[in-house]
Amino acid sequence: MWGLGEPVGALTANLTGWLQGMREGSIVVLAIIMGLMLAFDMGGPVNKVAYAFMLICVSQGVYSVVAIAAVGIAVPPLGMGLATLIGRKYFTAEERETGKAALVMGCVGVTEGVIPFAAADPLRVIPANMIGAASGCVTAALMGAQCYAGWGGLIVLPVV
């Protein structure tokens, strides 16, 4: 971890400044960017930069951005989990079991539930997750959703 703190901190500061400078009309662009970032590395550094921005928005009372991020956090594991239930014939028995765990993780806002699927087939899973998360984030933005908790997943529904 040594040596990564400075670049990640600088990236977070620069991205936060840029995202905070976006006007209300750019909310769709912001939603797309947040969705792509949150789903790209499933809990890795890019995801954490977007999550850090979400936490800043919680502290600043910008709850529409928090809702956008909450959706982006939940969509990849929920999507893969549902895919293993709906398209059972396309997944092995082990993948179907992993899908059940991904569903639970998506419900509590843990994007990392997708990692086993992405490790097995990164060229299809990562882009699909990014497109799905970006689509969900744009939907949340256009619907004017707000979330008052600095977390994602179905677990935050009571405060949305």
Automatic annotation (TrEMBL):
The chain crosses the membrane at residues 25-43, 49-75. It is found in: Cell membrane. GO terms for biological process: phosphoenolpyruvate-dependent sugar phosphotransferase system. Residues 1-160 form the PTS EIIC type-2 domain. GO terms for molecular function: protein-phosphocysteine-sugar phosphotransferase activity. Its main location: membrane. One of its GO terms (cellular component) is plasma membrane. It comes from the Bacteria. InterPro entries: Bacterial_PTS_Sugar_Transport (IPR050864), PTS_EIIC_2 (IPR013014). Keywords: Cell membrane, Membrane, Phosphotransferase system, Sugar transport, Transmembrane, Transmembrane helix, Transport. It is a multi-pass membrane protein. This is Putative fructose-like permease EIIC subunit 2. It comes from Klebsiella pneumoniae. The gene is frwC_1.
